[in-house]
Amino acid sequence: MLRINQIKLSPGHTEEALEQAILKFLRISKKDLLEYRIFRQSIDARKKTKILYVYTIDVYVAQEERLLKKLKNNIQKVEEKNYRIPGHGTEKLKNRPVIAGAGPSGLFCAYLLAKEGYRPILAERGAPVEERYEDVEAFWTTNVLNPHSNVQFGEGGAGTFSDGKLNTLVKDKSGRNRYVLETFVRFGAPKRILYEQKPHIGTDILMDVIRNMRNEILSLGGEIRFYTQVTDLELEKEGETKVLKRVVLNQTERFDAEMLVLAIGHSARDTFQMLVERGMLLLPKAFAVGVRIEHPQRMIQESQYGKELAEALPPAAYKLTENLDNGRGVYTFCMCPGGYVVNASSEKNRLAVNGMSYQDRAGDNANSAVIVTVTPEDFGSDGPLSGMEFQRQLEESAYEAGAGAVPVQCFGDFCNNRKTEKLGDVTPQIKGMWKFADVRKIFPDELAESLIQGIQRMDKKIQGFARADAVLSGVESRTSSPVRICRDEAYECNIKGIYPCGEGAGYAGGITSAAMDGMKAAEAIIQRFSSFS
Question: Given its phi and psi angles, is residue 190 left (phi above 0), alpha (psi -120 to 50 degrees) or beta?
């Protein structure tokens, strides 16, 4: 297989035009092009007067070696890097492995184990995705929270009610990244996620993908138990080491288990507390907090593409980073083109927000988190759950500011420390009830000032970013886990038999990296134990 880089075509080009560009580049006839596929597609918008689609193409051709010699400076030979599940170990399992959490890490861990005959039991504290969708819609309509089934908890994890972004910064030579994308396509995601520079699925499509994945796990011998939370652990001492013997489900059912995968997500605060009480080693970690900011998507289109092609190109995204003089970083996170801000709360009397897009990204506004870094020095104590308590304090302030609704403030008013009384040209696109409030007072002064400085500096990169009528809502507090559950090279924590993984354990950030980390936990189990089949 040969790989061609830098095939460039104008927006609106046809599939035939792409094929003709490939033939012209290779200087061959159509009969010699056996097959081609897009490896990567991106948009080069550096020159607004000449925006181009840029392709990397993999081709299968007749007389491959001749072409290599002829075009050696512009083409390369590549081999497909297919992911391989490792060989099975020899230790015998007395009980089926238990996986706590059906987010990306838990689902992919369960999927691999089921494929290999380990018959995993997947325990999810929330609802199946169909019921979860109804619970979330009801919360957004009535403001009555179901603490077990919401934007954070339930089948698919927190990423289900997001943009479904699948890009990752993880450098992966094993093929796990490609395997995750191919698995999503197999279960209903559009094929273009295999080659888009910034692939996304969208909440509406992602729910179908998750349901199809669940059915496959069941057909392979796995078991999925919804409304089932791991609420305690029963341990025994072997020498100086604690070893898992049983898990307690929903505070009542004792379940024999010598293996537990913790894929609990970044918001499982009651579980974090239980783990600390049972002697598991958790450390507080840095993360970031801030607000959601909304602008007209049209403004972002024109900034990124220019006015002439603003409507002809896909909804534009952005990623902005600023380093402030006070040593803090301010950056945008989880940007949702044509999306919505969502009430993402999971605890009563505490309020958090997130962003979400549907597959078509057709909403009027663009939104993203603008967040400022915080470290254990900001948390006020040095305990393992100090970051979690810091999150809670901000969320309690947000809940009070909006009287239970999402607190909203225009950026100009945020800067001038006054409550917003009327909107400008930006109308909030929010899933859930919202209310004018003083969002600035949610934050300690240094964090509020850092957000102001960061947004004002970002205006130099995207004109209008700091417009006075940009809508801020708070609080964006669940950017990543506030803890790291320590684990060794075999993916076990200090309690033997327990494998922490994914975003909640502090080893991932986003759908794809969490899925890949769940795969790593499954691989560790597969390499150690023999299957049941």
Answer: beta
Has residue 18 got a pLDDT over 90? yes
Residue 209 backbone phi and psi in degrees, to 5? -60, -45
- DSSP string of 450-461? HHHHHHHHHTTT
Residue 512, SS3 per DSSP: helix
Mean pLDDT of 90-118: 96
Q: What is the dihedral of CA 367, 411, 345, 427, to 10 degrees?
A: -60
- Identity (one letter) of the amino acid at 48? K
Pairwise CA distance, residues 468 & 193, whole Å: 36
Q: What token pair was written down for 341?
A: 């801000």
Stretch among 165-179, 232-246, 442-456 having the lowest mean pLDDT: 165-179
The mean pLDDT value of the chain amounts to: 94
Task: State the Cα–Cα distance between residues 313 and 120, nearest whole angstrom.
Answer: 44
| CA 439/CA 293 separation, integer angstroms | 12
Check: pTM over 0.90? Answer yes or no.
Answer: yes
More confident residue, 226 or 161: 226
Continuous segment of H or E residues that includes residue 243: strand 241-249
Cα gap 198→333, rounded to integer Å: 14
β-pair type (340-343, 253-256):
unpaired
Strands 260-262 and 353-356: unpaired
Per-residue model confidence (pLDDT) at position 442: 97
The amino acid at residue 324 is L
Collapse the DSSP code of 121 into the 3-class scheme (helix H, G, I; strand E, B; otherwise coil) and give the result.
Answer: strand
Rounded Cα distance, 271 and 223, in Å:
22
Rounded to 5 degrees, what are φ and ψ at 280?
-75, 145
In contact, 462 and 335? CB cutoff 8 Å: no
User: In this structure, which amino acid lies at residue 86?
Assistant: P
- Confidence class of residue 169 from pLDDT cuts 50, 70 and 90? low
- Give the sign of the dihedral formed by CA 115, CA 118, CA 124, CA 127: positive
pLDDT of residue 87: 95
Q: Is the pLDDT of residue 74 over 80?
A: no
Which residue in this structure is represented by tokens 């001038």?
416
The pLDDT value recorded for residue 533 is 64
Q: Which two tokens stand for residue 392?
A: 């809670």
If you compute the radius of gyration of the chain from its CA atoms, what whole number of angstroms results?
A: 24
Contact indicator for 480, 517 with CB cutoff of 8 Å: no
Give dist(CA 101, CA 228) in Å, integer.
9
Q: What is the pLDDT of residue 257?
A: 94
CA distance 21 to 502: 42
Q: What angle do CA 503, 472, 371 make, to 5 degrees?
A: 35
The count of C-alpha atoms lying within 13 angstroms of the C-alpha of 335, restricted to the half-sphere facing its C-beta, is 18
Q: Which distant-in-sequence residues (6+ apart) come within 8 Å of 117 by Cβ?
A: 221, 531, 532, 533
316 and 337 Cβ atoms separated by less than 8 Å = yes
Range from 9-13, 109-113, 345-349, 394-398 carrying the lowest mean pLDDT: 9-13
Segment 245-289, tens digit of pLDDT: 999 999 999 999 999 999 999 999 999 999 999 999 999 999 999
